[in-house]
């Protein structure tokens, strides 16, 4: 095993150690689990235990839901300006503590510091954005068919919301949900993933310091997600569940929520195609594909999962991609010279290796990288696979690791068919120099988001979300607020005429 793939330590400390919170945050108070249970949080770069965190269950979840219900009514009665002021305080504190939050993220999640800093800023941007959007929740006046009547539509907060989030974006996945919820007058009960609870707990600490009233944001870390998830899905006080994670768990939670018919937002898995046409700028395409593929060591739902390249430029594209990958350095994300950190768990590494082995057994060749850490190492060399075909598992499955499979196509029609040949429909990317083609293909592929000659487009300004089995609902932008309001029609009768 090469040196770069061995687990490496690096010292870290925070300017404000008070941001490391290891208890649950319920009704504005920090509390241990009722039975005192805890679970370890590991640094994926070193396999060291960095914290023991309270592991709560159904009883604490019920308490959090009831606290949220009690707090929500008064919060909803405040003006949007008052709610906005508190959210802006939270945004300011997230940004003031950006460096500490980034260090916490890197040690629990593994992504490199530059990416962690970017994610904390991205997380804060949703708070700032929705602090403003909350002021613009407009209704409507409707023409009605009967004389002497007037109709209006008002928007009201959904009520108590629950959020379940994944480990790959430990900070942003909370604020993309909690900020719009809080901005319109909802309360939130959130369950972080057991791999990375510290980021969300630190954000809750800062929400507390920002003056968010008790009960409006509750955070429930748990080693076992089932008891917390079951309560969130079955408790009738919870009116909405917003989930980001795998499609399999999203489907399970959807079934569980059917009993109380909760509103749902589902941000699920992806199988993003990057389509590179022969008329594309190949250097731009390779850089864009690599930026999407290897970001967060390949662990994002919008990571390039299938790179589809027109056969006339296939070899040239591979050479360009190899040049980009050749500049990468793997290691502990706290080292500023490192570009790519470990994957989240040893199990994740093994699943990714299985996909590569399957492809190689069926005829794919390794054009770069291909080495996996041994023992307890969680490092994978950024890898390029050539001669990959749709018959291989890697065409259909979310890789969630730094492996770029490059497929061939010959016509535009074939590229569209290949791109759509999946149950997923989250992000997609097209590289072409032909504007007419970019329109045709963007409209022909079944994805919630399309990047044309661009792969890094996420921000608070865009409606993020997917089609097909990638989910339902949108987060961010002006559309993101719709997920947290009810539309109420009011009819005024017996008005007469003036
Ligand atoms: P996961 O589905 O295993 O877990 C997500 C969350 O669900 C975690 O908090 C987990 O503890 C919880 N969970 C798991 N089983 C549960 C149950 N039975 N009841 C209640 N909660 C349960 O996903 P993951 O491995 O943490 O994240 C990776 C997945 O998330 C990938 O599929 C990725 O594409 C997807 N993702 C999607 C988006 C998006 O916006 N569409 C963003 C990031 C990640």
| Number of distinct helices | 14
Bound molecules: nicotinamide-adenine-dinucleotide
Task: Give the CATH class of the largest domain.
Answer: Alpha Beta
User: What is the average of the pLDDT values?
Assistant: 97
Main sheet record: 7 strands, mixed
Q: Describe it for me?
A:
The chain is built from 14 helices and 20 strands. It is globular and about 75 Å long. The protein folds into two domains: 14-268 and 472-486, Aldehyde Dehydrogenase, Chain A, domain 1, CATH 3.40.605.10; 272-459, Aldehyde Dehydrogenase, Chain A, domain 2, CATH 3.40.309. It has 498 residues and is α/β, with parallel strands linked by helices. The protein is 37% helix and 20% strand. It binds nicotinamide-adenine-dinucleotide (NAD). Nicotinamide-adenine-dinucleotide (NAD) binds at residues 164-169, 191, 193-194, 225-226, 229, 244-246, 249, 252, 267-270, 301, 398, 426, 466, 471.
């Amino acid at each position: 095993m090469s040196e770069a793939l061995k687990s490496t330590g690096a010292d870290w400390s925070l300017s404000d150690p008070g941001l490391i919170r290891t208890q649950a945050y319920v009704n504005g108070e920090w509390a241990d689990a009722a039975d005192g249970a805890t679970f370890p949080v590991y640094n994926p770069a070193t396999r060291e235990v960095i914290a023991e965190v309270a592991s709560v269950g159904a009883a604490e979840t019920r308490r959090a839901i009831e606290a949220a219900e009690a707090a929500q009514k008064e919060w909803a009665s405040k003006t949007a300006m008052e709610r906005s002021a508190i959210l802006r305080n939270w945004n300011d504190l997230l940004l003031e503590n950006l460096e500490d939050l980034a260090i916490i993220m890197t040690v629990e999640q593994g992504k490199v510091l530059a990416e962690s800093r970017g994610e904390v800023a991205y997380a804060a941007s949703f708070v700032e954005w929705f602090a403003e959007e909350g002021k613009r929740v407009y209704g409507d006046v409707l023409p009605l068919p009967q004389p002497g009547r007037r109709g209006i539509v008002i928007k009201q907060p959904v009520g108590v919301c629950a959020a379940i989030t994944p480990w790959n974006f430990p900070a942003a996945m909370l604020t993309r949900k909690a900020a719009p919820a809080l901005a319109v007058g909802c309360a939130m009960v959130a369950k972080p993933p057991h791999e990375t609870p510290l980021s969300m707990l630190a954000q809750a600490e800062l929400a507390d310091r920002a003056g968010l009233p008790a009960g409006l944001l509750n955070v429930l870390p748990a080693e076992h997600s089932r008891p917390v998830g079951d309560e969130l899905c079955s408790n009738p006080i919870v009116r909405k569940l917003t989930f980001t994670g795998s499609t399999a768990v999203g489907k399970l939670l959807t079934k569980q929520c059917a009993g109380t018919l909760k509103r749902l937002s589902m941000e699920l898995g992806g199988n993003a195609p990057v389509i590179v046409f022969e008329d594309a700028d190949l250097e731009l395409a390779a850089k864009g594909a690599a930026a999407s593929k290897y970001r967060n060591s390949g662990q994002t739902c919008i990571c390039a999962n299938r790179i589809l390249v027109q056969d006339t430029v296939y070899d040239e594209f591979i050479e360009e991609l190899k040049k980009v990958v050749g500049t990468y350095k793997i290691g502990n994300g706290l080292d500023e010279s490192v570009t790519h950190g470990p994957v989240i768990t040893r199990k994740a590494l093994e699943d990714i290796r299985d996909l590569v082995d399957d492809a190689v057994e069926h005829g794919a060749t390794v054009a770069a990288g291909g080495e996996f850490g041994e023992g307890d190492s969680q490092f994978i060399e950024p890898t390029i696979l050539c001669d990959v075909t749709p018959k291989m598992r890697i065409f259909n499955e979310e890789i969630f690791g730094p492996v770029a499979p490059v497929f061939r196509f010959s016509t535009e029609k074939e590229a569209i068919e290949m791109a759509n040949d999946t149950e997923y429909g989250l992000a997609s990317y097209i590289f072409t120099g032909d504007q007419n083609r970019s329109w045709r293909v963007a409209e022909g592929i079944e994805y919630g988001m399309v990047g044309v000659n661009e792969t890094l487009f996420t921000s608070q300004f865009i409606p993020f979300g997917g089609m097909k089995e990638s989910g339902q609902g949108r987060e961010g932008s002006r559309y993101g607020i719709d997920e947290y309001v009810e539309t109420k029609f009011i009819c005024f009768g017996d008005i007469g005429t003036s």
